Amino acid sequence: MSYPYQIKSLEAYHEAYKQSVETPDNFWGDIASHFFWRRKWDSVLEWNFTEPKVEWFKGARLNITENCLDRHLDTLANRPAIIWEPNDPAEHHRVLTYKDLHYKVCQFANVLKNNGVKKGDRVCIYMGMIPELAIAVLACARIGAIHSVIFGGFSAQSIADRLIDANAEYIVTCDGAFRGQKDIPLKSVIDDALIGCRFVKRVIVCTRTRTPVSMIKGRDVWWEDEIKKIETLGMTTCPAEEMDAEDPLFILYTSGSTGKPKGVVHACAGYMIYTNYTFVNVFQYKPGDIHFCTADIGWITGHSYIVYGPLSAGATTLMFEGVPTWPDAGRFWEIVDKYKVNILYTAPTAIRSLMGFGLGPLQGKKLSSLKVLGTVGEPINEEAWHWYDEHVGKKKCPIVDTWWQTETGGMLISNMAGITPSRPGWATLPLPGVQPLLVDENGKEITEADEDGVFKGNLCIQAPWPATIRTTYGDHERCRKNYFSTYPNLYFTGDGALKDKDGNYRITGRVDDVLNVSGHRIGTAEVENAINMHAGVVESAVVGYPHEIKGQGIYAYVISQTTHGDESLIRKDILQTVTRIIGPIAKPDKIQFVKGLPKTRSGKIMRRILRKIAEGETENLGDTSTLLDPGVVDDIKSGKV
Fold it and tell me: Residue 204 maps to which CATH number?
């Protein structure tokens, strides 16, 4: 398979970028012409950021799975589509060719239909990283059902919140999942979530860990039994449902600055075009390359760069069930050598964690197949960048530092491997079609650089790209308010950034009340709400602080009615509460008990002060005279943990 739209030189990048900004309809229309459509579009782009309303390829009809599977069958039927590496290296790996994957997707699509799932229904998927997760995602898309994948680390309460918000009547899960030394009881967590979700009609359970599970008659069925029914009926094919370009493809929940998760909605056509385009260009993918993205499909990275981007490009994508440090810290490097991986795409958190084990785990690993390295989830610090470059890439592999979000669907700012210049710690240049703008707090463009020639401001985007968020499920006003109301006619990313004289960008981190912990966005309000659920807690405030592995850690200031003389016990109780309500991913790293919080006379918590104290800054806290009780600041400083 060839990619006529693949950029091959720096000059070609500048030309493509210029065209994408000046004539976006021609630019994206030409790229889209290389895909399979049931009906071509009436217009390429119609938009305004006020409502907001964004429509790409309006009037077009398609099915994304025909572009990910069917169109490859004539030429790539026997090429590996998915290589699956299990958690336990002693277990046999699996390879699904495009022909295999097409067959299994059609098979499970028929299972869904046989269980009552129709176009437009929401299907919640809560599974470990096994091929059946990718199959379930694609089967939903095949029949026009809207999938909502939930990461296997979320609690029953978090799942229930998402099920209710999406009104998802169907669930696909596993008996359990393996992750390192842990067995995660997925079905048991689903059972707890469903206590308050009586509207769920069917739970399809795939066997993985053989953990004993409760199967409720009339609601729960085994994946394997349902497959046998389909085989008995002779249902080996499943026609792809014809979808409108703007029909929703999936909902993916993300933390916000309020306690309630937001259901980000992406549409079929634009998302398909954009994930394919960015995959092919940023990684400079060549037919036959093995692409290893280490993310979980429960996050947007897995959706875009394990499933839809690679498969729409006819690529071979590698799925890994386990963790980078089990059974030892050489696991990633063993996988790279075992499958001769060409592209490795992982998180700075994983790199920093592996750095901590020294160079021992790299001994004896060739890593000679690697051509491109990538990072995702958070800005990578220079020390980790250089370690990755020297010890993994052997200084021969370009590192693409990709910046993007759940809401953007695909990468927005990144160098292209070997094509555009890289710079440690910098995401560098915007991709074609992406128009960034730095503004001050009032939305005025930053036009003056500092003494180093660097512009600094809040990062916004001026015009839509094909994978722009379309809405937040069931609440379009929330989408408008969160992303398009802070600065008129701009998409506000919530991140701060620097820009140098050459137009390169460096992301400096969140400027709103959202933390970036190990590349995962967690709203401070969501964590505070969970802490406040604990019976002994009066009030709490959560901020981020620098963490050498995670990038950002979670620091909680807690006012407690009583510690029963044992602070360590109530700390454990609070951590247990947060785990039960959100999941272990949101547990605070530090909890400091305080008598009061710094508040203005209107009752607003001065997080700026709390953030500085958590970061170790105790002198330059700014003006505290306007606080209701300035004395609490000294108490907090003296009790810092």
Answer: 3.40.50.980
pTM for the whole structure: 0.90
551 bridge partner residues: 547
Q: How crowded is the C-beta side of 64, counted as CA atoms within 13 Å?
A: 35
Closest CA to 111 of 75, 135, 82: 135
| Count of residues in the chain | 641
Residue 120 lies in a domain: yes
Looking up tokens 């547990």, which residue turns up?
587
From residue 281, give the alpha-carbon distance in Å to each of 8, 84, 137, 290, 507. 9, 24, 24, 15, 21
Among 184, 212, 241, give the residue marking a domain's end: 241
Contact of 375 with 399, CB cutoff 8 Å = yes
Q: Which stretches within 194-233 are classed as H helix? A: 223-232
Q: How far apart (Å, rounded) are the C-alpha atoms in residues 543 and 529?
A: 13
DSSP notation for 78-117: TSEEEEEE-SSTTSPPEEEEHHHHHHHHHHHHHHHHHTT-
Quote the CA–CA distance of 530 and 73 in Å, as a whole number.
49
Q: Would you state the pLDDT for residue 259?
A: 64
Strand 372-375 vs strand 399-401: parallel, antiparallel, or unpaired? parallel
Q: What percent of the chain has pLDDT over 70?
A: 98
Using DSSP, how many helices (H) and how many strands (E) does the chain show?
Answer: 20, 30
Confidence of residue 639 (pLDDT cuts 50, 70, 90): confident
Closest to 43 (Cα-Cα) out of 271, 246, 276: 246
Q: Which of 200, 28, 18, 7 is nearest to 115 (CA)?
A: 200
In terms of Cβ atoms closer than 10 Å to its own Cβ (0-12, 13-18, 19+), residue 332 is buried
Confidence of residue 536 (pLDDT cuts 50, 70, 90): confident
Note whether 181 and 326 are within 8 A (CB): yes
Residue 330 lies inside a defined structural domain of this protein: no
Of all residues in the chain, what percent are helix, strand and coil, respectively (each to 5)? Answer: 35, 25, 40
Q: What are 546's strand-pairing partners?
A: 552
User: What is the average per-residue pLDDT within 90-115?
Assistant: 98
From residue 43, alpha-carbon distances to 245, 268, 277, 358, 554 in Å are 11, 16, 20, 55, 46
Q: What is the biggest distance separating any 2 CA atoms in the chain, rounded to whole angstroms?
A: 77
- Can you tell me the mean pLDDT for 270-291? 98
Can you tell me the mean pLDDT for 408-437? 97
How far from the centroid of its chain's Cα atoms is residue 27's Cα? Answer: 27
Q: Are 380 and 387 in contact (CB under 8 A)?
A: no
Question: Which of 220, 241, 262 corresponds to the end of one domain?
Answer: 241
Name the E strands within 474-603.
Answer: 491-499, 505-510, 514-517, 520-523, 537-547, 551-560, 590-593
Specify if 454 maps to a domain.
no
Bond before 261 cis per omega within 30 degrees: no
Q: Does the structure show a pLDDT above 60 at 523?
A: yes
**Assigned domain for 625 exists:** yes
Residue 398 carries which side chain, given as an amino acid letter? P
pLDDT at 475: 96
Domain span at 199: 98-241
Provide the domain count of the chain. Answer: 2
Classified as helix, coil or strand, 641 is: coil
Contact 379, 506 (CB under 8 A): yes
| CATH code of 597's domain | 3.30.300.30
DSSP code, position 239:
P
Higher pLDDT, 604 or 637: 637
